[in-house]
Every structure is written in C-alpha cells, then in structure tokens.
Design brief:
Helix content is 80%, strand content 0%. The chain has one domain. The chain starts with a helix and ends in a 9-residue tail after the last helix. It is globular and about 60 Å long. α4 packs antiparallel against α5 and α4 packs parallel to α6. The protein is built from 6 helices and no strands. The chain has 179 residues and is mainly α.
Length: 179
Amino acid sequence: MNRFQRLKDILIALILTAFGVTLILVPEEGYNDIILVLSLLIAVYGIRLLWYYITMSRHMVGGKSSLYHAVIVLDLALFTGSIATMNNFIILFYLLGIFAFGGVINVLRSLEAKRYGASWRFKFFSGVISVVFAIAMLVLGVVLGNNNILVYGFSISLFYSAAVRIYNAFRKTAIVYIQ
C-alpha cells in the first residue's frame, strides 16, 4: 500500500466517523445526507469504471465485463439516490444490507486469500463481525420497532468500519523486491 492509498483510507475513515457522529447527534436528518453522499460516491465510482472501459478495457480480452460492471454500479447509484424519499426504516434496512454485503465480500476474499497462502484471518473476522452485527441490528429493529436503535447501530457500524480502515492504513504490508 503506497502513501496515497494510506491517506485515502484515513480520509475515508474520517468521513465515516463524521457520518457516524452526524447520525448520533441528529438521527432524523442524517438519513438523507448519508443516502445522497452514498449515491454520489457510487455514481463517481461508476463513472470511473465507465471511463476505464472507454479508455482501456474495450481493447482488452473480456473488456465488455467492465462495461457491464460500470452500468450495474451506475444503476445502483440511481437506485440509492431514489430511495432518499422513502421511509427512514427502509433506508436503514438498505444501509445495513450494504454493510452486511460488504462483510460477506470480506469473508469471501479472505477465503480466497487463504487458498493462496496469504494472510486472511483479520479480513475474515472483520467480515464475520460485520455480517453478524448487521443481522443483529436488523433483528433488533424489526422486533423492537425502534428506529433509534437502528440509527445508533448503524453509527456503531460506521465507527467500526472507520477503525478497520485506519488499522489497515497503518498496518505493515509486504514489499516484494525483484532481484
């Protein structure tokens, strides 16, 4: 991981922490802000993928898969932006679902890293914790029917994601030297 990637992870962790604090301080107003920023970030990522297809990937073998990936990500951005007018309970389910999906992706990546003999334990446990926490928050939100529990739970998940990103930014990475 180079310095730019480390700084990017630290900046993202600070943004996640700011969103968590916003949700705790103003739980009624924080939903729409987070959804709009999340939609914007997903759209920027989709445009980046589309630009990658236009400039490089269309000349590569299997380049159309990057076009499909870009279109799907842009559709997800539009969908995320469109749910901003829905009920806050649905928005929280959506946000916790995204958090759980990220945890599942971490678990799958760690299992792949284990197959190749790389370090996998931290990513595996981080993914499992994310999935279990998201499921627990969804169950608590449905059983108790209280939006504030979901808001505080989502804020905790944002703090956890920020802490994991900061840990990864300061963790030593292996450097491969070619002789």
